[in-house]
Description:
By secondary structure, this protein is an alpha+beta fold. The protein is built from 3 helices and 7 strands. A hairpin with a 5-residue loop joins strand 2 and strand 3. The protein starts with a helix and ends with a strand.
Amino acid sequence: MRSAYLLVALLLAGCGGEEFQDLHDFVKNAAAEMRGKVDPPPEIKPYEPFNYDNSVDLPDPFKPRKSVLRNDHPGLNQPDMERHREALEEFPLDGLKMVGFLYQGKAGYAIIRAPDGKLHRVKTGNYLGQNFGQITAVTDTEVQIKETIQDSSGDWSERMSSLQLVE
């Protein structure tokens, strides 16, 4: 048994030669030659404030800008503020759900569930939502709405929205 250990020790000693010495030398020398160079940081320029006054023809960035075309018609698309408000106008449009459709006579009506849980029957021409939304069409799967919204400069514009039937 002792001789087997001795034989294994001799074989292992023979494997420990300088067979990879050239690889070890390459790694040692390559790392010695590589030195990183970092560029100096850029020079920081001091802050110079700019004064906006009326003598310069630059727009003030803190005041809203209106397009020239829209200024020609300041009340264009403005909704009727004196109109009697309908029940569904107190809720945001995303809180309303279309839950049904029915025909009465020759007219189609959508059934809308409000956030308070009440059901409302609406048709083309009724108003809903908080952005002066007027129903333009009612189908068995959708209510199409034209909303009138005011932008930050006070101009009114229209956008189309819809409520889809919830199953």
